[in-house]
Design brief:
Butyryl-CoA Dehydrogenase, subunit A, domain 3; 9 strands; 370 residues; seven-stranded mixed β-sheet; Butyryl-CoA Dehydrogenase, subunit A, domain 2; 3 domains; Butyryl-Coa Dehydrogenase, subunit A, domain 1; globular
C-alpha cells in the first residue's frame, strides 16, 4: 500500500488545480451560488471535452478513461479546495457508480452520455425523513405496459432541478429497485430547495405516475444503491479533505499578516497549538480518504468498512477545521464578504450528506460485526 502519487497522478492534480483556479475563482463561485442552475454550462462542457473529468472513472467500453477511485479522488479533492459549483458529485459520484453496478443495457445506454459531458445525472433516494437507507424508501413503482410508473416524492436530490437523468429508488412488489427517469418526463415536478450551502443545489422531486425504465434487476436495487453510496462516501471524503486543506492554508496565511500587540497573531504560542491540532485533523482525514480510495481499487472487500470510516472521520475533521478557521479570522470571518463562511457551510452540509457521522459509525460497527 503506497499513497505516493505517481507522475501521472501528480500531473492530473496539477492540471485540475490549474483549471479550477481559472474557472472556480471566488467571483465565479459567488455568481453561480446566486444562479438558479448552480453551474456554468460552458465550464461543464470544458471539463468533459478538455480534461475528460466526467468519464475519468467510467470504463472505456462506455466511453470513459477507465481510471480508478484513487485518480477520481484527486479530482474531488481539488474540487473541494476550489468549492466548485457544478453537478459533478451528483453525476459522477452518485449516478455513474449506480449505473455501473447495476450493469445491463441501461448502463450501456446512459454511461456514454455521462462520460461525454452530455448528460447531467443524479440519484433520488432521500424522502421526507432524510434517510439515506434504501430500506426506508416508500416511493413506489408499478408495471405499465412495457415500462413502469413511479409514484412518490424525493427530497434533497442533488442537482435534481437540472438533471437530464434521474435514478429513482422506488419499491416494487419484488422489493427496492432502481429506475431511470428523464428530466422532461410527464408528471415530474421539480422544485429548487433553499439550502444553507448555496454552492451545492438540492431539489424536491414529485413523481405523479411518471414513466420510468427499470435499471438492473427488479428487487435488487438496495444492493446496487448501497454499493454506489460507498463509492460516493469515498469521493465525498476526498472532497472534504480538499476543503479542509484550503481552510487551513488560508488561515495560516491570514495569521502571518494579522497583527495584535505589534506582532503577527501567528507568532503566539496559543495559535500555533491550534494550527498543530488542525494539521493533525487534515492529515488524518487525508490518510482515511486515501485508504478508502485504495480499498475501492485494490481491496474491494474492505471498501464498506473503509468508506464508512472515511466519511465519518473526514466529515468531523472538515467541520472542525472550518469552524476554527472562522474563529481564527476573528470578526472578519463572520462577514458575507469573506469566503471563510462558504467553506463552513459546505463543511456542515457535507457532514450530513450521505448520512451523518453517527450513522456511518453505526454502519462501521455493523460491517465489522461487533
Amino acid at each position: 500500500m503506497d499513497f505516493t502519487l505517481s507522475d501521472e497522478q501528480s500531473e492530473l492534480r496539477r492540471t485540475v488545480r490549474a483549471f479550477l483556479v481559472d474557472k472556480s475563482a471566488e467571483t465565479a463561485v459567488r455568481r453561480l451560488m446566486d444562479s438558479d442552475t448552480g453551474y456554468d454550462a460552458a465550464v461543464w462542457q470544458q471539463m468533459a471535452a478538455q480534461l475528460g473529468l466526467q468519464g475519468l472513472a467510467i470504463a472505456d467500453v462506455h466511453g470513459g478513461a477507465g481510471f480508478g477511485l484513487q485518480e477520481q479522488s484527486i479530482v474531488f479533492e481539488e474540487m473541494g479546495r476550489a468549492l466548485l459549483c457544478a453537478p459533478y458529485f451528483a453525476t459522477v459520484a452518485l449516478a455513474a457508480p449506480a449505473l455501473a453496478l447495476a450493469g445491463g443495457q441501461a448502463a450501456a445506454d446512459y454511461l456514454p452520455g455521462i462520460a461525454a459531458g452530455e448528460t447531467i445525472a443524479t440519484l433520488a433516494l432521500c424522502e421526507a425523513a432524510g434517510s439515506w437507507d434504501p430500506d426506508a424508501v416508500t416511493a413506489s413503482a408499478q408495471p405499465a405496459g412495457d415500462g413502469w410508473l413511479v409514484i412518490g416524492e424525493k427530497n434533497y436530490v442533488l442537482d435534481g432541478h437540472v438533471a437530464d437523468l434521474i435514478l429513482v429508488v422506488a419499491r416494487t412488489a419484488a422489493g427496492v429497485s432502481l429506475f431511470a427517469v428523464t428530466g422532461d418526463a410527464t408528471g415530474l415536478k421539480r422544485e429548487l430547495l433553499p439550502t444553507m450551502d448555496q454552492t451545492r443545489k438540492q431539489a424536491r422531486l414529485t413523481f405523479d405516475a411518471v414513466p420510468a425504465r427499470l435499471v438492473g434487476t427488479d428487487g435488487e436495487g438496495a444492493t446496487v444503491v448501497r454499493g454506489a453510496l460507498d463509492v460516493a462516501a469515498v469521493l465525498l471524503a476526498a472532497e472534504q479533505v480538499g476543503g479542509a486543506s484550503a481552510c487551513l492554508a488560508e488561515t495560516v496565511e491570514y495569521a502571518k499578516v494579522r497583527e495584535q500587540f505589534g506582532r503577527p497573531i501567528g507568532s503566539f504560542q496559543g495559535i500555533k497549538h491550534v494550527w498543530t491540532e488542525l494539521l493533525l485533523q487534515v492529515e488524518s482525514a487525508r490518510a482515511a480518504a486515501q485508504f478508502a480510495a485504495w480499498a475501492a481499487d485494490c481491496a474491494v472487500e474492505e471498501l464498506p468498512v473503509a468508506a464508512a470510516l472515511a466519511k465519518a472521520h473526514c466529515s468531523e475533521a472538515y467541520a472542525r477545521v472550518a469552524t476554527e478557521s472562522i474563529q481564527l479570522h476573528g470578526g472578519i470571518g463572520f462577514t458575507w464578504e469573506h469566503r471563510t463562511h462558504l467553506y463552513f457551510k459546505r463543511a456542515k452540509s457535507s457532514e450530513i450528506l450521505l448520512g451523518a457521522p453517527a450513522a456511518h459509525r453505526e454502519q462501521l460497527v455493523t460491517r465489522l460485526d461487533f
